[in-house]
Amino acid sequence: MSAGRYAPSPSGDLHLGNLRTALLSWLAARAEDRQLLLRYEDLDAGRTVQGSAERQRVDLESLSITFDAEVLWQSQRHQIYDDAVAGLRLQGLVYECFCTRREIQEAARAPHAPPGAYPGTCRELSEQERGRRREQRPPALRLRVPDEDRDQSVEDRLLGRVDGVVDDLVLIRNDGTAAYNLAVVVDDHLTGVDQVLRGDDLASSAPRQAYLRQLLYGVPARSAVEYLHVPLVLNTEGKRLAKRDGAVTLAQLQEQGIGPEAVRDLLLDSLGLPQGPLEQALDAFAVEDLPRGPWTFQETALPPR
Ligand code: GLU
C-alpha cells in the first residue's frame, strides 16, 4: 500500500493554515493514487483538548477532505513504540539520559552541533552512575548516533535537498511516552506511508526521521519516503497564522456567515487551483505548479457577506 497522511495534534480547532495543509495532503495523495490516512498526534496529554479531535474531523469532512482506513491515535500505541525501541536497544543504540532541560541548555555545546542539539552528557555514564541517577529521576531514552552518521539529508519535492545534523535524539521521554520523532517514524512506516506532506516548519525534522526510519526498518532513508514540506500561511504581519489572528477557524468563519464551501474556494484559490469541488481541483493539481512561497491570509480576501 502507498499512502499519505495528515497528522494533527488535537489541541484545538484547525485554523486556515492547518486546513490548507490538510487540503494539500488530500490533493497530493489522490493525485498519485495514494490512500490518505488520518492520525491524531495526541501523545502530549497536557496539550490535548477534549473533543477537539472530533471537531477537527468534522471540519475536514465539511471541506470534503476524507480519509481511508481507520483513524489512528498515538496515545493508544505505547506498546508499539516500546517494541521499536527494544529493537534498537538490542543493537546497543539506546542509552538512558537523566538531564533536565535546563542542564542541557547550560551544558557546553559540542563543536558544530546545531542549536539545541544534545551535548551527549549521559552518553558514557557507568552502570554504577546510572543506578545512582535512576534513584533521583526516571531516565529518558536517547538514540546513540555514531559521529559518522550525524550529517543526513533528504530530498524534498518542493524544497530540494534538505540537510540536517542528527543529534542523540530522545526516543522515550522520562514520563514513559514516545517522543515525537519516534512516534512519527514508527507510525508512518507501519501504516505504509510513503508520502509525508506537512508544513515547512517541520522540514528540519525530516533528515533525522529518515535516519531513524532506516535504523528501525532498514529502508534507505533517501528513497523510502517522498517529502513535501509546504509553505505556511502567514498573518498580515508576516508571522505564522495563529488562532489569535481573528476569524481563522471554520466555526469562527461560519459565525461571520462564511460557510465551508467559501473557505474551500479561498484555499483552492490560494493554491492557484480552480474553485469548486475538490475532484475538479484534483484534475488541475500538479506538485510542480504549487506556489513556493507562503500565503498571507487577509480577511479582505473573504467573500462579501
Ligand atoms: N502533529 C504535527 C503537527 O500538528 C505534525 C507532525 C508531522 O506531520 O510529522 O504539526
Give an account of the 3D structure.
With 305 residues, this protein is of the alpha/beta class. The chain has a domain at 78-191: HUPs (Rossmann fold). Helices cover 35% and strands 17% of the residues. The chain is built from eleven helices and twelve strands. The chain has helices spanning 16-31, 52-62, 78-90, 101-106, 127-136, 180-190, 206-217, 221-224, 250-255, 260-270, 278-284, and strands at residues 3-6, 35-40, 72-73, 94-97, 140-143, 151-156, 160-165, 170-172, 193-199, 226-230, 233-234, 295-296. The protein has a five-stranded parallel β-sheet with strand order 3-2-1-9-10, with helices on both faces. A hairpin with a 3-residue loop joins strand 6 (151-156) and strand 7. Helix 6 crosses helix 7 (206-217). It starts with a strand and ends in a 9-residue tail after the last strand. Glutamic acid (GLU) binds next to loops.
User: What percentage of residues falls in helices of 4 or more residues?
Assistant: 25-40%
The portion of residues forming beta strands comes to 15-25%
The CATH superfamily of the domain at 78-191 bears the name: HUPs
Instruction: Report the CATH architecture of the domain at 78-191.
Output: 3-Layer(aba) Sandwich
Compute the average pLDDT. 94
Ligand roster: glutamic acid
Number of strands: 12
The number of helices is: 11
The name of the CATH topology of the domain at 78-191 is: Rossmann fold
Low-pLDDT segments, ≥5 res = none
CATH class of the domain at 78-191: Alpha Beta
String of helices and strands = EHEHEHEHHEEEEHEHHEEHHHE
Main sheet properties: 5 strands, parallel
Specify the overall morphology. Answer: elongated
Alpha-carbon Rg, integer: 21 Å
- Calculate the terminal CA-CA distance, rounded to whole Å: 44 Å
- The class by helix and strand makeup works out as alpha/beta
Strands of the widest sheet, in order across it, are: 3-2-1-9-10
GO biological process, one term: glutamyl-tRNA aminoacylation
Region (Disordered): 108-149
Family: Belongs to the class-I aminoacyl-tRNA synthetase family.
GO molecular function, one term: ATP binding
